[in-house]
Amino acid sequence: MTTILDGKSLALKLRGDIRAEVDAHRVKGLRAPHLAAILVGDDGASKTYVNSKEKDCEYVGFHSSVHRLKSDVSEADLLELIRSINDNSDIDGLIVQLPLPKHIDATKITEAINPEIDVDGFHTISVGKLTKNEDTYISATPFGVIKLIEEYGIETKGKHCVVIGRSNIVGRPMSILMSRGGNPGECTVTLCHRYTKNISVHTKMADIVIVAVGIPKFLKGDMVKPGAVVIDVGITRVETNNDKGYELVGDVDYDAVKSQCSAITPVPGGVGPMTRYGLLFNTLKSYKKKQGL
Ligand code: NAD
After folding, report:
1. What percent of the chain lies above the pLDDT cut of 90?
2. Cα 126 to averaged position of ligand 1 atoms, centre (Å)
3. What is the C-alpha to C-alpha distance for residues 147 and 282, in angstroms, rounded to an integer?
4. Are 162 and 210 in contact (CB under 8 A)?
5. Gap from CA of 291 to ligand 1 centroid (Å)
6. Measuring from atom 4 of ligand 1, which residue has the nearest CA?
7. Are β-strands 63-69 and 34-40 bridged in parallel, bridged antiparallel, or unpaired?
8. Is 97 labeled as catalytic in the residue annotation?
């Protein structure tokens, strides 16, 4: 029997825990945690992501503020806004939704965020601390995957994990977390990317496969060892004739792989909700530090 790693239900429960904790702090007279977001331009997917972050905040009792800026905003004005948010001691988390328009240097923007409120975990200081296994904000998707693995009690000690994709926000931190020591994180890790030859040679040896490439149904059934655990990070909008005009498709050929493996995340309803939980977790963590809790 294949276990479906139900990120949706797990995230719902974990969000409930956050809401209960926030309620308890509010009863004691403390302010609500506050997440600020900056959205530049009209990108449809970015708007959707920011809207869902606002909804998540509302659900758990966080205050959220969204700064919606025109796509032609200057880099200097954006930096000024970030500085003013950094200086506001009542704000616990700041995220700048990526991608940014071409005339803005995304690295400069990421580095301008005060690491103390860098709840996306993209700042060099956050990434450096993660690499050294120091306490920090782990970016939401790798954090969500680790939490999912932990909650489902998936063993990592002595296991071989293959991560496919080496992006700064998913694949690379994922590979570090899976081998950093502690539970879960005791795997031997192989990191594959676009120039890896014969990927299936690696994936067929893996006890855990984590795929983050952005290519629908990239991981096929014959690429997986029987009994492996498969985590699908990918989300691609593929056009279809349904009401929305598209469906969300993962990087795993779900039906074919499911019949091979011992556990698998669905898309949607797997890693996505856990990512959303990760941002709330980080914001609460910052809040608690600020409140001395
Ligand atoms: P990215 O484009 O930054 O990185 C993709 C990686 O895949 C690269 O490192 C590249 O080397 C590798 N790659 C590309 N083609 C390959 C191939 N043929 N063989 C092996 N490796 C290959 O993407 P990303 O930001 O890491 O996102 C990856 C996917 O995860 C996307 O579908 C994205 O939408 C999704 N995503 C989901 C969540 C979530 O919450 N579920 C969060 C972030 C990203």
Report:
1. 99
2. 21
3. 13
4. yes
5. 36
6. 167
7. parallel
8. yes
Domains of the chain: 30-115 (3.40.50.10860), 140-272 (3.40.50.720)
Where is average pLDDT lowest: 59-63, 244-248, 270-274? 244-248
**Atom 17 of ligand 1: nearest residue by CA position:** 194
* 78 — pLDDT class (breaks 50, 70, 90): very high
Instruction: Find where tokens 């659900």 sit.
Output: 59
Predicted local confidence at residue 45, as pLDDT: 86
Catalytic residue among 92, 97, 147, 159: 97
Residue 227, pLDDT above cutoff 90: yes
- Is residue 120 flagged as an active site residue? yes
Q: Whose CA is nearest to atom 6 of ligand 1?
A: 165
Record the pTM: 0.97
The reply to whether 291 belongs to the active site is no
Amino acid at site 160? H
DSSP string, 97-154: PSPPPTTS-HHHHHHHS-GGG-TT--SHHHHHHHHTT-S-PPPHHHHHHHHHHHHTT-
Ligand 1 centre to CA of 24 (Å) is 39
Ligand 1 atom closest to the Cα of residue 275 is 40
Q: What is the atom index within ligand 1 of the atom nearest the CA of 214?
A: 32
Beta strands 188-192 and 160-164, pairing class: parallel
Segment (H or E) for 199: helix 199-203
Q: Which of 92, 118, 120, 253 is catalytic?
A: 120
Pocket-forming residues, ligand 1, beta carbon under 6 Å: 141, 164-167, 169-171, 192-194, 196, 199, 212-215, 233-236, 271-272, 275
Q: Is 141 helix (H, G, I), strand (E, B) or coil?
A: helix
User: What is residue 215's predicted lDDT score, i.e. its pLDDT?
Assistant: 98
Mean pLDDT score across all residues of the chain: 97
Q: Which amino acid is located at 173 in the chain?
A: P
Q: Is 193 exposed, middle or buried (0-12, 13-18, 19+ CB in 10 A)?
A: middle
